[in-house]
Amino acid sequence: MKLLVLFALVAAAVAWPSFGMMADSAGAPDAHKQHDVNSVLWKVYEDIRDPHLKELSQSFDPLSGHYDDDGVAAKRLMKELNENRLLEQNHWFSLFNTRQRKEALMLYDVLEHSTDWSTFAGNAAFFRVHMNEGEFVYALYAAVIHSELTQHVVLPPLYEVTPHLFTNSEVIQEAYKAKMTQTAAKIESHFTGSKSNPEQRVAYFGEDIGMNTHHVTWHLEFPFWWDDAHENHHIERKGESFFWVHHQLTVRFDAERLSNYLDPVDELHWDDVIHEGFAPHTMYKYGGYFPSRPDNVHFEDVDGVARVRDMLILESRIRDAIAHGYVTGRDGSIISISDSHGIDVLGDVIESSLYSPNPEYYGALHNTAHMMLGRQGDPHGKFDLPPGVLEHFETATRDPAFFRLHKYMDNIFREHKDSLTPYTKDELEFPGIEIDSFSLSNRLETYFEDFEYSLINAVDDTAEIADVPISTVVKRLTHKSFTAKCVINNNNEHDVIATVRIFAWPKYDNNHVEFSFNDGRWNAIEMDKYWTKLTPGPNTITRSSMDSSVTVPDVPSFLTLIEKTEEAVSSGSELHLEDYVSGLGLPNRFLLSKGTTKGMDFHLVVFVSDGAKDAAIDGLLENTSFNHYGAHSGKYPDKQPHGYPLDRRVDDKRIITGVTNFKGMDVKVYHVEEQ
Ligand SMILES: [Cu+2]
Fold this sequence. Notes:
signal, Immunoglobulin-like, Hemocyanin_N, Hemocyanin subunit 4, Hemocyanin, N-terminal domain, binds copper (II) ion, oxidoreductase activity, Hemocyanin/hexamerin, 16% strand
């Protein structure tokens, strides 16, 4: 522990940038806005409890608000409302349901086009009362993330806003019981399934509330429905980010499997059975239980979604495009994908998003597959079951089939990446730069910790009866902090800006055969990426695992968020929540993949590239709002492709391991059973 403190002090003493979401005081959220957002999300299935917002929900007229679209969006939604076309309350909502998505996006548009806070808050309060709760939560989250008005507002953790989508049904039932009997309860959560199911060994990953929050947040920040013409700005490298975020989940899940003595995930085959069944043990707030799927079912055509044959046709069109090195646009134009930018186009095509150049031809492989898989329990709608877990980003990773599906798409992406020419020595070299040493402050250790979160918002209540505390305690993977120390020699006579890229991959496969460099690098988990200045001579750089740019800290609990906000509102002081404005990264405690008691071998690599060449923006070192998966409504600061330089195939590993700005080493990750 002392050693750790020492390293932390050293880290603080060395001047180096932090790329977490460290905003300056100008980045503090307006306490009143934060208050309003908290209040409309608190007990979202109940009446609004905040007197001011409740009053606003009755008095505000959406047609009298201030908008930058002449109120077109507000008029459209009000017409739907007045003509009783909107989905009722107390009904499930799924983003993959076309009509429901349309309705949610109509509200999103109204909020997004609001030009002042009283219009935004008025609409939020008004439509919270008049629209389906699921649609409302989705629209509000998307609007808070993308609207100019809410830039620094922190969204409460989704697992405390809509706990049903994150918690087992058994726990939810206990919570209802606690509420009915007015007895405080702290309910233990267990992972889904029994020990007879080997998949249960890795359920801690698919069911991790922080990982699920990360996944939902990514889809909110980079929505497939995003329409540039409508929203007035382009989301950069959205397709590539789609590939990368899911690639990282895929390789990470395989690493977790290896540490639990399971084979890596096999990809999904449309013409084979779906080997693993799944019983979600999860229920909707309204709409019953999520449907189950037995083992070894044959893929069925799903009425109103797609036929299995359609999926195979789409896949072969996409594979054709990869083999040709180009996709065909709607108008027959040829769009090359045989360069670094190709992955971005391909990501748009496969998801597909509205950025896809030809959805009529290439379809929406990913989105349709989610629905196909989600409906296999009731493919013809005979039993009127609600959508499956795969039809919600909050719940999708609970089903192991999610990872089969994504392995399948990841392999298509790999086919494309493997078609590109490997990087040459010239491209990889950073003249005059040499990594002298790389070391870690302490043993890498993972363990499970108990985490408690509130279920108050899961249960029904009335304003007259006081709340009793109801929470659940769940085990989650975490690790000891560590500091990485890197000594880099700059043999040039001038300062340079360097990009430091750190990855790790499991050294051995499930048969304890060492991965070749080429297979290992495809399985690489991104650990960190940051920029630093190197002065002539040796430079010692220390970096704490807490600062990794691929991760974010836990958002404070909803109740803490409310407390802090109310304190700031009543005292007029500033609200300090800067660290939490983006929930985009993986949870910080999730940086290390689970180890084993004897130590799981990983190969760790560090690559330093020329920051001046990589920079897509000015002032890299001063840019403090960098987040790994993209800059919040800004430009992604790194010009290199995600995963660079491991994104392309390596035919001869000496080309990369031979440059002085690359260093590899073996490390072990230990798992400690009881802390
Ligand atoms: Cu996803």
